[in-house]
Amino acid sequence: MATDHDIPSPCPSLRDRKKAATRAAILDHAERLFEERGYDQVTGAEIADAANISVKTLFVYFRSKEDLAFADTWLIDAVVDTLSRRPSGTSHAQAVGEVLNQALRTLNPDSGGLDAFHRGFGESEALRSRLLRMWADYEDAIATVLAREASLPAPDPAIRLAATQLIGIIRSCTSDEVREYVSGFPGEETDALRGWIRQAVEQVDNGLTRFLDRTSQSPGI
User: Fold this and answer.
1) d(Cα 179, Cα 151) in Å, to the nearest integer?
2) Are 87 and 163 in contact (CB under 8 A)?
3) Going by CATH, does the domain composed of 74-208 fall within 3.40.50?
4) Which of 12, 55, 76, 218 could form a disulfide with 16 if both were Cys (CB 3.0 to 4.6 A apart)?
5) 144-168: buried (b, 16+ CB within 10 Å) or exposed (e) per residue?
6) Under a CB-based contact definition with an 8 Å cutoff, are residues 184 and 192 in contact?
7) For residues 69 and 127, is the Cβ–Cβ distance under 8 A?
8) Region at 187 (left for phi over 0; alpha for psi -120 to 50; beta for the rest)
9) Torsion 22-25-31-32 (CA) sign
10) Which tens digits make up the pLDDT trace of 143-191?
């Protein structure tokens, strides 16, 4: 009898492949233009023209220009996957730190390290607002993983606090304070950022243990 594993996954249709190619092209051109000229200096019409599509089509794929700057979910996808599969003896904070260090290993050394995650977008207020929403979404995703691990139907206050601290490790890496700290090590910025990640993981680890110890049934935090 055939099993689900014996049934090959259906190939994407030509229409789906074309849609995926168009979306990828839009993102590629948007990223290039943002980095060349800065987010605020690029219009949606210019991105559409570079991708050889109409402005109307552009906004079928993306609701706003801000969404173009934060469309890539590789970071939270990697964090969720690593947290879910972390081996025994690896803390939640260490798992997050490993994702960040892996990102540093795969990024171009000249890209500015993890800061390349939202490099070239300037100081747009719209982007700052969108970035805050993105961090909130990331926090929700991590809280869901922690709740599932604790066999809870939904995050409780302790889980929410833990998720906030874990996302804080990631947020700190692109903060003005850490950027300034890292810039104090010319030619060694990536090593300095890696050192900061290690410190952040240790600090969060020191504060998370009791919150994630599900053997304690105390309702207090």
Assistant:
1) 38
2) no
3) no
4) 12
5) bbbbeeeeeeebbebbbbbbebbbb
6) yes
7) yes
8) left
9) negative
10) 999 999 999 999 999 999 999 999 999 999 888 888 889 888 888 888 8
